Structures
1.
Amino acid sequence: MVGKKITEVRQADKAGVDYAVEVLRGGGLVAIPTETVYGLAARADCDPAIARIYAAKGRPSFNPLIVHVASVEQAMDFAEMDEAVVAFARKVWPGPVTLVLPRKADAKLAAAVTAGLGSVALRIPGHDIAREILMRLGIPLAAPSANASGFTSPTTPAHVLATLEDKVDLVLDAGPCERGVESTILKYLGEGQWQTLRAGPLAAPDGGSLASIGEQPHQIEAPGQMASHYSPGKPVRLAALSPEPGEFMIGFGEVAGDCTLSAAGDLDEAARQLYACLHLAAASAKPRVAIAPVPATGIGVAINDRLRRAAA
Ligand code: AMP
Ligand code: MG
């Protein structure tokens, strides 16, 4: 079509990564693989690039972005980090955990990244390709999920194209995401205390006490923890044991469906399959969606959080 911008999709091989770094350095938008979901990445220090993220997603400007960094040292350029925070960051990074910390007054970040807040959300992603890009670039990347605001998150390049085709310069294809749900977000309260702002995969690095953090009550404090999110664009009924007429059924365990989160009842598999099932439901001719109950333990807390908001 004349005048229509075509989104390129490239394999995340050496040439693909070289090209992604070049596009990002020039202020472009690249959908990059991470271990959680595909991120819509742009230079966090560049106002026009950040404006393009908000425009491409149709994201409200009061909803701040997570800043992805290559190292703890780089994180310290942007956030006040006391010894306890540095130690904690070294324990959970790289990994699916975002830390909300006091922003340094002289942090070189586009103002829109933090939506005018005195805090900044930081993470080192646990995905080799994402980290390689960050290291080669030497500049942090703001990267919300690579989907239109409010819609189901992407865990494959096809999911990215479903809502962002021709709004993004490049999609870097490294196959499906390993974790499948967004990072756990923890806010630092001082004196070694953390508050969970969003449930997520939160891998405890050594089976330590971190595993329980994702199970604390979900507190809505930061802007953007919106009730309606992740939606397949049609009504969703939760805790369904069988479909009613006109419902696309998403199963789990013994509850069968048009597709299943995990026939074996495995919660890690269910997290990986969650958004793929919601994308299938969105694309189905059936006007409504029903979803089997999923236990709210471990990563099931994050799955139930996303399902509740997909149904809101
Ligand atoms: P996402 O929609 O996955 O990009 O989630 C990003 C979320 O991180 C936002 O909706 C906020 O709730 C949270 N967040 C990002 N930056 C900040 C910040 N500076 N302060 C508090 N929360 C933040
Ligand atoms: Mg999102």
Note: The CA atoms of residues 45 and 109 lie 4 Å apart.
2.
Amino acid sequence: MVEPGALLYEGKAKKVYATPSPDRVVVEYKDDATAFNGQKRGTIEGKGAVNNRMSNLFFRLLEAHGVPTHFVEELSERRTVVRRVDIVPVEVVVRNLAAGSMAARLGIPEGTALRRPIVEFYYKNDELGDPLVTPDHVEVLGWASAEELEEIRRLALRVNEVLGEFLAAQNVRLVDFKLEFGRTGDGRIVLADEISPDTCRFWDLKTGEKLDKDRFRRDLGGVEQAYQEMMRRVEGGLGR
Ligand code: UDP
């Protein structure tokens, strides 16, 4: 059993602890929720446990489909051992339907279908509000090499295929989601961070009901129930 050591970092939704092994850390998922770059704050009861478990189930599914991830071992309801990586300071968003910031910025109705998935990059910087950037910014400013960026793009689209197909079978439309990638000690790119209702838009395939953090962002009510319902569908799809 890995016992978490010193607190290395505390973010909005997670804490990260050292372990005796220099290339492993423990992440702990919190129930704290923020939106609009920290301007809206709250608590979503049970969210930490859902996000921990769902991320780990998705990481294992993705590993089985050839996507390398930082996942090592689930320790408890809220804690997981992951590989220590250098996070590439770029948030990678994949979109299948226009929603959220894309719909608002370009004046496109939410739910508009896209001919093919769109991959976007945002510079991870809270003070600047995570600005949208181009692949040239990422490369020229040295956040990732051209080769790394190509690999990140390929993996992000693969994640979209694997999760999109899995979720459709659970009656869930994968509208869009955000990924983060890291570099391992030996320089390989792996999927990191989390994949959860905090970082994805999940819409019921038939009714369009939102089953994700937009219920919190937009004060739609039924936030906890939506997280639990998504957990139930994901576990059901994996026969758990
Ligand atoms: N997202 C995220 N973290 C962020 C910004 C976005 O996890 O800091 C996710 C969000 O949940 C959605 C997707 O990325 O699934 C696209 O988000 P969008 O750019 O539409 O921004 P938002 O509407 O969330 O501000």
Note: The domain at 86-222 is CATH 3.30.470.20 (D-amino Acid Aminotransferase; Chain A, domain 1).
